[in-house]
Design brief:
CHAD domain, 2 domains, about 75% helix, CHAD domain-containing protein, CHAD_dom_sf, CHAD_dom
Length: about 325
Amino acid sequence: MSSPANPSVPEAPRPDDDRERTGPDDPASKAIVASLRTAIERIQIADPAARGGEPEGVHRLRTSARRLRSELQAFGKLLDAEWRDHLAAELRWLGGAIGEVRDLDVLRERFEKGESEADRLALKPLFDWLEGRRTKGGRTMRRTLTGERFKKLLAELEKAADDPPVGERAGKPCRKILPPLVVKAWKRLRSDADGLAADSPDVAFHEIRKRAKRARYTTELVASALGPKPEKRARRIINLARKIQDVLGEHQDAVVALTEVETFVALGRQDEAFHESVEGLLARLRRAADESRDLFLDELAPKLAKKKNQGRLENHD
């Protein structure tokens, strides 16, 4: 679930904003540098708002860390393996350090919009419990963002952007090296989605969401370096990946919310009004999870299987 725009949080830069675009004949290393520099800017923009506890800042910071980790994985053997794996681990740590706060913001937004005034009053013990956890998580997140490990991560990114640790293949043109990365991402997404059914475990749909996000990020990254025509052709599959991400994001949000509510109910007894309201809440969450799962299976999975959505962006001009 994405947060509404917040005017106090500046817009994140696009990969080629205010800098020379990477072109199809440029070495792939230039696309790697663009990825790193854009990630640094995104993190630096989101950092102050996240430290202040603003949900949009937390969301953008977490997304920035996840996106760069995905792009590093997409570049694969173009990068020094030891450095890539180390940086991916640090970005995973950063995302995890702010993950609970973001998840609780999503829950709060869902409950505030989806419940009646009477239900919100009856469910106040649940909301207070979530808010207490959010406050505690916010303190932990601020310690993370003011700590030495985060500062060291930013310094490592700055150093890598100036002198990226790349392999020999990164010196070859983008038009030769980068398109197969997109095909690979979409092939993995289709392979993992094949065979999913209504009775597949919830975690399997969450994995597809992550694969769709990675395919989207990889496509956006590569398409911007291949020229106008491949970039235009990429729009269809980028939009498909975004739809999959949104629909299965709704599914995952509902599943997580179900787990949290059931956990709180198991902690102890509440009054009759609470139990009446919480049963209605649980029913709505189960319905939301079922509807989003079925929408993916009935409408999006068939589109994903089509040959035209294989992620081929080669520029034949």
